[in-house]
User: Which sequence fits this backbone?
């Protein structure tokens, strides 16, 4: 299998950003670990970090996630990197190395008004394009930390957000509504949370965020998948 790795993401693997004075200062937006379950049975974990370099139009956000869990579709590992740029956090590059059933590497790169996607497996390589509408979000099934970018910290009311679901090869307008508030037990502590419902085509999710927009829990009812934060954000 040919390895795909966009140059803009190399510094994440090395653990430090390129040196460029004050603009190289790193802000950790979130990091942590989720317990992953299917139909209520624990099947593994997801660890992640979300870091920002620069601010405003010069901002670059790097989200890195590692999943070691028996997901409903047969995947059992995912190693993901995503870069988002600018004040609106537009995805500019994405990579996912998937292990298990249907093992493959997925790469996305923003090219003008389109995303170019390249999916490589042991038997074939497929190239596809997606429309890069403003505000597009990449939302990988089984990746709870991707919901960090879907919902802003302040509730703006119902939202329609263009999303791409890479492993499904699917693009749609996601409808996001605030369903209410709840209290979740995270790492032995009870936390207030905002509860959102997300619909993209036939896909349905529920997601719970804290007051700063950090993801606490994600559920995909059609597959029985759920991910719950193991410790309070920032702890």
Assistant:
């Amino acid at each position: 299998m040919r390895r795909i790795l966009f140059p803009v993401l190399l510094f994440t693997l090395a653990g430090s950003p390129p040196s460029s004075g004050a603009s190289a200062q790193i802000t950790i937006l979130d990091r942590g670990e989720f317990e992953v379950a299917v139909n209520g049975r624990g099947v593994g974990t997801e660890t992640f970090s979300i870091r920002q370099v620069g601010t405003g139009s010069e901002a670059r956000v790097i989200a890195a996630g590692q999943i070691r869990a028996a997901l409903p579709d047969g995947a059992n590992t995912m190693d993901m990197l995503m870069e988002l740029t600018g004040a609106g956090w537009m995805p500019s590059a994405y990579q996912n190395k998937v292990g298990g059933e249907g093992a493959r590497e997925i790469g996305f790169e923003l090219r003008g008004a389109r995303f170019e996607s390249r999916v490589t497996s042991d038997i074939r390589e497929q190239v596809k394009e997606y429309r890069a509408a403003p505000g597009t979000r990449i939302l990988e099934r089984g990746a709870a930390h991707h919901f960090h970018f879907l919902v802003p910290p302040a509730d703006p009311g119902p939202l329609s957000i263009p999303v791409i679901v890479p492993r499904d090869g699917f693009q749609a307008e996601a409808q996001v509504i605030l369903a209410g508030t709840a209290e979740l037990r995270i790492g032995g502590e009870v936390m207030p949370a905002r509860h959102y419902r997300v619909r993209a085509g036939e896909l349905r999710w529920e997601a719970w965020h804290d007051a700063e927009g950090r993801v606490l829990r994600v559920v995909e009812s059609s597959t029985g998948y759920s991910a719950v934060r193991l410790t309070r954000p920032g702890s």
